[in-house]
Please model this.
Amino acid sequence: MELARFAGVPTFMRLPALTPDHPRYAEVQLGLVGVPWDGGTTNRPGARHGPRQLRDHSTMIRALNPVTGVNPFTTVNCADLGDVAPNPVDIHDNLNRITAFYSDLKARAITPMTAGGDHLITLPILRALGADAPLGLLQFDSHTDLFDTYFAGHRFTHGTPFRRAIEEGLVDPKRFVQIGIRGTAYNTDDIAWGLSQGVRIIRIEELFDRGVEDVMAEARDILGTQPSYCSFDIDFVDPAFAPGTGTPEIGGPNSYQSQQLIRAMAGLNLVGADLVEVAPPFDPVGGTAWLGISLMFEMMCILAEAIKS
Model:
C-alpha cells in the first residue's frame, strides 16, 4: 500500500526482485520465474512474450485468497527470481539453460512457480526437479503433448515434452493425470502411447460429466503423497476466456471452473508448478494474461501450503 499498483517497475505480484548474489536470496522459499521462450512452438508463436505481460498484469493481484483463506506472501517467503536468459535460436542450449537454472533452485530448496513460454519448457524443469526420482504429474491441457516427433523426426517441440519426460524417467506414468484433453487431432498415436504407459487421460467430456470434485478426488488418489508437479497450459481454458494462446481449442472450462480445479489440488505434495502458452500477440487487450496470472496466484496458494506442511 506504499506505492500505487500502476507505478514502479513491475515484478511478479510486486514482490522484491532478487538475484543469487542478494543477501536475502537464501531466505526464499517460493520463487516466481519467467521463461520467455517459445522455440518449441510448431504453429503460432508468441508465448515468449508471456512472462512480461503476466508480470505487468500481476500488479493487480492482492495478497489474500478469500475462498481458501491463504495469503501465500505471509505463509512463506516469496520473491521474483527473474527470467531464465533465453537463447531464441538454439533449442538444446535453451533447454540446458533452463535445467541449470532450476537445478540451482532445487539445490537451494526453493519451490518454483513458473510463467512460460511454450510447453516445451516443462521438460527441462522436470529434468532438474525429477533428477533424483520420478515425479507425479498433474497436467491441465487441451493436448496430451505425448507425441513422439514432428517435422521429419524432430523430437523436441511443445507437442512432445511429456513423452520425453516419461522416456527419461522424470515422470512416473502411473502417477500422471491429464485433464481436459480435446480438439481435432492428426491421429490417436499420442493417446494410445500414453494409455500404454499407464497415464490417466481424462477428456473434457468426462470432466464435465463427472464434475470437478469427483475428477479431482481421483487425481489426488493417483498422485498420492509422493512429490508431484503441476503444469497448466492456458489453452485448457475455453478460448472465449483465454484467446491469447497458440493452439486454442473450443469446448473447454471457464475461468471459475479452472479456479475450482486448482483449489482442489490442496493437500498434494507439490514441488513446483508452471503456467504456460500465454501468447500476448493473440490477445493484446490482456484478458488471457489476467486470467493466467490469477490462476498462478491460486497455484501459489497451493504451493505455499505444501511448503509450510
Summary: The CA atoms of residues 68 and 167 lie 37 Å apart. The mean pLDDT is 97.
